[in-house]
Amino acid sequence: MRTCDDVVVGSDEEKALVKAIRDSFLSAGNVFHSLHIKDNLRHHMTKIGWHKKNATKVISLVFGNVGLTSAADKTTFEYLQERIIPKLLNNFTVISGNENIAKHAWNNNNCESVNNLLKLSIDWKPAKVMDLVDHIHNIVKLQYSDLHRSLFGQGNYQLAAAFSHHYTPYAHWARMSEEASDKVFTSFMEDTGNVYAFCNILHKVCKQCNRCFC
User: For the whole model, what pTM was predicted?
Assistant: First the structure.
């Protein structure tokens, strides 16, 4: 069939139909029905268990009056494809494969928090290098103190699942000698988390106190 170079064929996402159009009309453009794309996206989010309210927000961000489909040029799509999507996919791959990382978007808030502590400690004024080192040392000691407290369920930190077998009830911790508590902390700091995973495989973890008997 003879067609003009600027012919555009509209269709849904039926694979066989899309292939037939591209094979038969080599110079024609092919656009997909936005309603079908929207419905397919909504169906997928429902299938994987997304809350309806969240799904509606996503639909609006993509297909709304000021959504992605209303972009003035393809620069926005290129930026998403080349810069944003690959990084989000990388983060998802790393986070989903590591049980010790919280399952949400990672951010730099922890670093910003420590940075703020440093600025407060020097009253937001320039300081000599050795003075700055002393301030950093004091902050690190505070961090280690919080790590100690996480072992008996207090402080700003909480033990991740892979390290929960180091937990010691506070009543027991309070009666421990300094040497004994240091030994527990050293064991915790040397733990990579791999032993706990191995013990779980062998079913040798007490279900009540979550301690390992390997």
Answer: 0.44
